[in-house]
Queue: 4 jobs
Job 1
Amino acid sequence: MKYLLLLFFAIVLLIKPAGAQITLNLALNNRPQPWLSDWVNPVNGQMIISYMQGPALNDPSVKLRSSLLDERGSIIGASNINAARIYILRAGVNQFTIADALQLQNLVFQGNLQNTLQHTGRLPAGQYQLRVEILNTAGDIVRARQTRPFFITSYQLPILMQPASGSILDARLAQNIIIFRWTSLIPGSPDLPQYRVQVFEILPGQTPMQAFRGNRPLLNEISTKGSTQYIWRTQLPMLDSTANKQFIWTVQTLDRRGQPIPGMDTNIQGRSEPAIFNIVNQMGNMDKNRKNEDSIKN
């Protein structure tokens, strides 16, 4: 019995090439780069098409039909097979990039995804599937098909550490230097992120968020690439009669292209939850208190 099973499998292996001359293997990185235009890079994987000429298939010309699916399996992007490029396969192994498999220039996206990709170039964080089918040049016969799942990483934006929200800074020190510190982007990105520090003054009669959304920033600078600290040499009049001020600050995290890295809420444009700090002219307050004490004594 064992001998008959071995003989059966041997026969299957011998006759399989006669009926299946094209095989497809998508060696897709399960966490590829989020910029679809970068899928030409080897780090994202490769597509391998093996072709063996035979009596059942002697035409080496093929087209690719690509589909991008969400985590539910619904198609969110599909290539136009009529406009797809024709590939002429050579006998043996044919290697292509994952960009060739995706066919970004020939891919039509559904809903708001088209606008998101045009604006940022990034695929939003989440779980997806890439399905590739090899068809004849007429586009009506599928010769091979494969689907591979992949993930686009979801990031936790940095947390502001110093000045902490509600902290009070001495104007005598703040007039020269204010040091800002924050945590790193989580998880770490293969490309070091850039951090833009933004500081807004909260004017009298404003709420912190009104100042944050409506005022021009007093500071709007990018720190050293990958650094989680920025030293602001303020050069602001901190010791005059208006020294007691309130500020709101944040950090905007940018990718290597200078685009905001999206967090859970894409509307905040890569900005961490802001923090409020105060600058107080403590010496001025002390002088004022002494005058009040003298007037009470007199």
Note: The mean pLDDT is 83.
Job 2
Amino acid sequence: MKSILYILLIAMVFSSCKQEDCITCIAESQSGKIIETRLACDSDSEYLRGFINGFKDKHRANDSTIVHCAYSE
């Protein structure tokens, strides 16, 4: 009986952990040359939105730079 409770406790602890999401952002020139690549992983979606916005803001001054961001698996 104690072993079953122990297994259930371990399963509950592992299932309650937040999983991290990862974002990959790439800045490229209009000719297709990659200028910069960044990756961020976190369990906080607000942090990841801020990461995307910051990366886009960094490259916004250069009109010839295209920024792509996507969630990684």
Note: The longest strand covers residues 21-29.
Job 3
Amino acid sequence: MTNKLIEFVVLDAEQNPLLNAEGWPTLKQAPIAKDIGQLVDMGKVTHIDKFAALQSESEQYLWAAEYLNYLKEVKAVELENAELEPVTGEDGELIEPTPKPLPDEPVRPEVKTIEQVLEPYGHKIAKLRGITFKGLDISLTETNQNGLSALKSALELATEFGADDQFFPIKFNAETCEGNKVLVLDDESEFKQFGLDFVLARKAFFE
């Protein structure tokens, strides 16, 4: 039954399972996984695919540890049952002892894809990743929307007083999944294109 664990077991130079003092195989070090939900809540989704893959892998290692414990429990129960002996009842008849039942074998979970791991957080991740403009992933947040509105009002005011030629380039302090980044908008055309892309993406996100 240890064959089910072979991919998780440390092998010696001859490719045989490395056994400990009790004769049980030594499991490989499990990958260190991070809480995907916590990462998303913190806005750290830049490398979320990598962490999703680690979580999927760690679930398999968790099963391997459970399965090894299961094998140990089976062995212990079998030894305990082997030592059971009939007892003599009050009427002199031999009473066969009831053996202890074996534990249930843990079922190995299916290997999850990155998409399956991230599915519960897809909406939040999409909002954080937002749209890509000039190489930056601009999050679809209310803060960014308010910032765009403020710039639009400022541009209208500058135009009203004939100072629109002094307005650009402007630096838009944007929220991204990597923290705040500066998006440089060189002219009115670029500003309008960015605003349109952002508004349409945010509208589609909330529909």
Note: The chain has a mean pLDDT of 93.
Job 4
Amino acid sequence: MQDHRNEEKHVKRIIPLAAVAGVTIMLVSAIPASARNDVIGPASVRKSTWVHYTTQRTVSESGTNIYVRKSNGPELDVTWRRCAGGQTGTPVRLPNTDPTSAIRIGRDFLAGTVFCLSAYSRGNNETDTWEGIIYWDVRQAP
């Protein structure tokens, strides 16, 4: 009789632990192992002028996307570009409301692509700053 009660207590402890472990494994497996993010700014922007930033980031997983989320700053356009020159993405508008949702600024990159950001202020001030987060090596909006 005593052995049966001890066994029931043991089973009652194991079931919740197994459930937590299962949920944790599902959540971790949904996030790509190589997903990366970095803080932007405070970064300077100029009204009606493209500002080219020099921080280099490297895509490590082919077929992934780049997203930007603005936490504060003026309305602006943001694009990715190859740091060494050449190819650039299509500018994407980040609204004046803060914070914005994560907005995709490029998709389906090849592993090894080295990119930088450029921004174009649409705000009222001649010079301003903005801050946000950039995400790369991701397949869907963070």
Note: Strands lie at 36-46, 50-52, 57-58, 64-72, 76-82, 92-94, 103-109, 114-121, 127-138.
